[in-house]
Specification:
With 395 residues, this protein is an alpha/beta fold. The protein folds into two domains: 7-172 and 341-389, Medium-chain alcohol dehydrogenases, catalytic domain (Quinone Oxidoreductase, Chain A, domain 1); 173-333, NAD(P)-binding Rossmann-like Domain (Rossmann fold, 3-Layer(aba) Sandwich). Helices cover 27% and strands 22% of the residues. One of its GO terms (molecular function) is oxidoreductase activity.
Amino acid sequence: MGTQSNRGVVYQGPGKVVVQDIADPHFTSPAGKKIEHAVILKVISTNICGSDQHMVRGRTTAPAGMVLGHEITGEVIEKGGDVEMLEIGDIVSVPFNVACGRCRCCRELDTGVCLTVNPSRAGGAYGYVDMGGWVGGQARYVMIPYADFNLLKFPDREQALEKIKDLTMLSDILPTGFHGAITAGVGVGSTTYVAGAGPVGLAAAASAQILGAAVVMVGDFNQERLAHAAKMGFVPVDLNKHDRLGEMVEQIVGVPEVDSAIDAVGFEARGHSGKEQPAIVLNQMMDITRVAGKIGIPGLYVTEDPGAHEKSAQQGALSLKFGLGWSKAQSFHTGQTPVLRYNRQLMNAILFDRLPIARIVNAQVIPLEEAAQGYAQFDAGVAAKYILDPHGMLR
C-alpha cells in the first residue's frame, strides 16, 4: 500500500456519510501501542448494517470523523510477528466483535463482551461508537488485532470467492440472527415470531427455519420487506392492520402465543401510531411468548439515545411491562452476539448449500464509492442488504 491508497466511509454528522481518503492501517492499537498480533486485510466485501444506521441518523454519541463498518471479509496482505496460524493470501471472515482471546469472557466464548479491548466498557467492535476506537472496515484496507483468535479462514479461496455474497454475512447478521434464534429456544416444531423484516430479522427467520421451526412469522410495517419475507418462505405479519399482535398470531397458528420470539428491531421501534415507542417490541414479545418461553433480543439497545423523544429513553430507560414477563417465567437474552460461537458451523451451512443467506436478505453489491447512496436507500427501507465492493472483486 502506498500513501493515501486507503479510502473509507466516514461519518460526518447526522444524516451525512462521505467516502474519502483515510490513513493506511498500521500495527498500532487505538491507544497508540505497537502490536504484533494483528494482520492487515485487503477488504473484499464490507456491508452496511442497520446498527450503522442508528449512528448515521444521529441516534448515538458517535463523533464526526469516525470510519464506519464492522462487517468485514478480506484477504491477508500483511501480518505481524505474533501471527502464527494465518498466511498472506488467506481469505477470512472478521467477526464484528474485537476480542482478545485471553480474558475470562473470551475464554468462555462470550466474545461480545471482551474485557480488555475497550477501556470504557466490556466489548469492542470496528467502526462503532463507544466500542474501543477500533478503525472501521468500510474501507479498502483495515487492521485486525488478535488475528489468530478472531479470524475465520475459509478453506478454499476459489470456493470462497464464488460464495462471497453469502459468506460476507458471517461477520455479523447471520450469526446475530442465529444467536437470536438459539437464545429464543427455537428447535424442531417451534412456533416462532420475529419482529422486524430487515436483514437481521430475515437472518433470524432463516436461522429458525434451519433449526427446525414449524412456522416462522415475520412482523413489520414495511410492505416491500414483508413481500420479500413471504417470497423467502416466511409467514408475513402486517403490523399496519391493527395493534393486537396476539390476534394476528392466533389467525396463523391457532393460539395467540408462540414458543419463541426474536426482537430484531431494537431501540428505534415504532408503534402502530407511527410514533417511536422504544419498549413496544419487548412488551409485545412478553405478551405473545408462552409461559416459560424464551425471548432472544439481537436488536440493538443503547445506554444513551440522545435523539429519543422520551426523556427517560435518552438515558436508555424504557417503559417495560417487566411484571408480565416475570409472572410468565420467561427468559430474556440480550447483548452483542458472540460471533465466534457460531460462524464456523454457519460457514459450513453456506458452503454445503444449506443456507442461501444472500438470497434470503436480498444482497445487492455496490461500489465503495457509492456508499452514501446505499445508506440513503437502506434508511428509506428498501428490502435489500448492501454489500460494498472496495476493489471490484465481487462484480
